[in-house]
Input
Amino acid sequence: MTIHGIRPKYHDLWVGEREPWREWARQCNFHVSGIIGAAMEWPFGPYETVMGTILLMTIPLQRLLTRDEPEMRVPLSELLAEIRDKGYKWHISIFVVMYGFKAFIDQHNEAIKPRVGGFTHYVHGIEGDLSLWVQETFRNSVLSDILSFHYLFVYLFLIWFSPMYYILCKDEVMADKAVLNYFIAYVLAVPLYLFFNVEVTSSYLPGMDALMYHRSWNLFFFTEADPLDNGFPSLHMGIPLGLLAINRLHVRDMGIDIREWRHREFDLFVAANVPIYLFSIQYLGIHWISDVVPGAILAIICALFAHSMQPKLRSLRENGLSSLLPAKRVSYTAVAFSLVGTLILLAAVVDGPGTDEDAPTMRVGPGDVNLDVIEVHSFWHPADVEIRNVGDEAVEVLIIHRDAVEEHANGGVIDWLSLSDGDVRLLEPGDSLDEQVETPSIYDGHFVLVTNQGNSGVGEVRITIEYVDGSLLWSAIISSIPSFAITGLVIGGLYFSEDEVGEKIANE
Output
């Protein structure tokens, strides 16, 4: 059944049905936020603010960490010469390539989702409401602000600062490995991001607020940069864990203890942020505990690959491209992993269990307001949006331009009553809404807002958005093959060492 109704007249009767203290706290938060916002208008967005802070902190922090080794510092006047002499141009190129590569992958994510579906209901079946307990137990406005900034700041900081720190410390080997850690970690995550969609916890656990996403200052940045279903795996855990693993592989080759390493303080800094991330990704309404497991596995694979590949990249000029080729049996393992991985995607994932039409992609408890993003994929072709109520409770739905939502998102909560004068639709259990959304410019992103304004029960909806570029499935599969190949190279390299392979082949 397709509903084309209007906002029900009894809508306002549901005001205040939440627990009184939560409603009071929410209203107070909106009031205080409005006063602060009116008093001080910050002209920069989250990304510009964070990157500006990172750039300002790079040199002072590097100087602090190397205060006992001034002779190992690169003078700023010699930095360009150091970049040229040590061949750091490809490090800079990696950041440029990654910007385009991530945009390319993100273009596929939502486009192929109707053929892939989501697996959040399986993860929830394993974990239950553990993340909700974390948020409710430790909920504090100051803690929310600190962890929100930390979540974005330290992640970008580690990506940028890690190679820059080693470059400024005259350690080209670790500079190489730090850049590879970032690049390879994302490459390894591609098939999981594209073919194993897991929604953020705040979209699926009733009563859990998106403490970082649903803020007027953060809203546009995160909904444009994050599909909100790329939780599996967590690279906020994978990248620092990968760097810590690389550090230990490196000092083992040097024949020293990690405590004797001259970069020990930086290693401790990275290590200290891991438990903070482990807590914050639960508290802020982002990741499931299950997202950490593949993040840790990815970190190990990434570290082993970067550690073994770095010397070959440094000797490329002397030894040529042939030096990058692995031994035969290792190559066979990489090919086998690539074939098996591709077959699994085609045979088991595409049009597989994730596309179950009765499985919800979003769940809302009493008073909750959650959002899904309608991206801009074409200026000429509309996006086809289907919203189906697959639960037992009535829900209200509003498709709205993103600009109309910003001022209503504060403290992790979207104020439904202040923005719901638009074309709100009531969906009873079993009902569906079909709409076409035009996006004639890059600034015409829309949100699907879903709420349960009742005083009990859990609303469940399945949102399916089809874009004109839905045929990107094959390029998504091709983009996933490098991840399978790298995993095969690492597994093959562990099983067949270079020396053993050479000896076995010589004796055959």
Summary: The chain is about 55% helix and 10% strand.
